[in-house]
Amino acid sequence: MTRPQALDLFCGAGGASMGLHRAGFDVVGVDSRPMPRYPFPFVQCDALRPPFDLSRFDFIWASPPCQAHTAMKSMHNAKAHADLIPQTREMLIASGRPWVMENVPGAPMRYSTMLCGTMFGLGCEGAELQRHRIFESNFLILGPACNHSKKPTIGIYGEGCRDSRRKSDKRHADFTVEDGRKAMDAAWMTLAELCQAIPPAYGEFIGRAALAYLGLRSAA
User: Fold this and answer.
1) More confident position, 193 or 220
2) Model pTM?
3) Which helix (H) or strand (E) is 113 found in, with range?
4) 35-38: long-range contacts at Cβ-Cβ below 8 A with a sequence spacing of 24 or more?
5) For the chain, is the Cβ count within 10 Å smaller at the N or the C terminus?
6) Cβ-contact 122, 199 below 8 angstroms
7) At 99, is the secondary structure helix, strand, or coil?
């Protein structure tokens, strides 16, 4: 049986792609940088100008760069980053296909739903992953509620895999890269790739919602 086809634009090392694959899609990834550990067919090119017709895909995912919208943007040594969300949205709408766009809280998105690692029980060594991401889409996605607890958190970003307990007690060591891989469920990624990725669980959740929508549209 032929699996539906998904395109992952700005795919990075493939966190979203792995989730879409687990949901039931065959996935092609696109990124402007080489991605030697990306686990599926990959095309290196400008994600805003892919060399093929987007309408050939059943579903399109896009994760334009988030650096222009993270808390890091206000640091004294922060570099300027372009906001590619408007261009990406325009391209997705023009495709005529079901789509979702992902970014960080605070990004200028037309809010649809938010996902967090605690919704999926993600974490490691007694710590939970509170990694919030927001999603804009052209179909309805109903997400669960965050399930934050009083556990410490693991933060995976530019400085490494941080333990929230260090804020009050410097004797706590940071988590290791292996801890970060476990928390994200992304065993194939380097630390730099983990810092830029979303957990596959997010992609799988939205992929299943996309498949349900595709089924409803076909039935209609």
Assistant:
1) 193
2) 0.91
3) strand 113-115
4) 35/11, 37/13, 37/188, 37/189, 37/190, 37/193, 38/11, 38/12, 38/13, 38/14
5) N
6) yes
7) strand
